Amino acid sequence: MLDPYAADIALRMEHVQEAPPELRTHAFACASEPRELWSRDGVTVEAVAVHHEPVRDAVAYRVRTPDGTVVISGDTRVCDEVEALSRDADVLVHEACRTTALRAAVAGTPFEKIFAYHADTVALGGLAMRAGVGHLMLTHLIPAPDDEAGEGAFEQDVRLGGYAGTLSVGRDLMTATIG
């Protein structure tokens, strides 16, 4: 799992640390009801199974801290499990696909199948509104926008779905502040 970082690890071991990083994984079974995975010092992480079929074992996470709550969708279509998990979250980070806007353009192509198991931006706007999400951050954008106009199309779709809160179309290294 760390093979892509072998050169970086070797350099760090040569200059600043004696041993390679320790990889800790925690496998878990996930169901349609949220399950607590971890809790320490006022921070709790829950997970719930989401719908990314035909890809199995997709999950969403809810991270609660004393400063606020962040939900991260992972790959999924818009589903009740994410909506329930996102109830009153300060930030929802969710993948977004312009399915409604591009339905005619992808009809009969392989993209039609791909779009079927990703989150439609219009439906996502409705989910975020109903869940009372404070800030919706879009990620894993399909298709990836090339410019501000392309980003604006994602925003327009979400607003069409009814979401009126704070909205960010994700870019690499973008941050959000809670609390």
TrEMBL record:
InterPro entries: RibonucZ/Hydroxyglut_hydro. This is Uncharacterized protein. It comes from Spongiactinospora rosea. The lineage of its organism: Bacteria, Bacillati, Actinomycetota, Actinomycetes, Streptosporangiales.
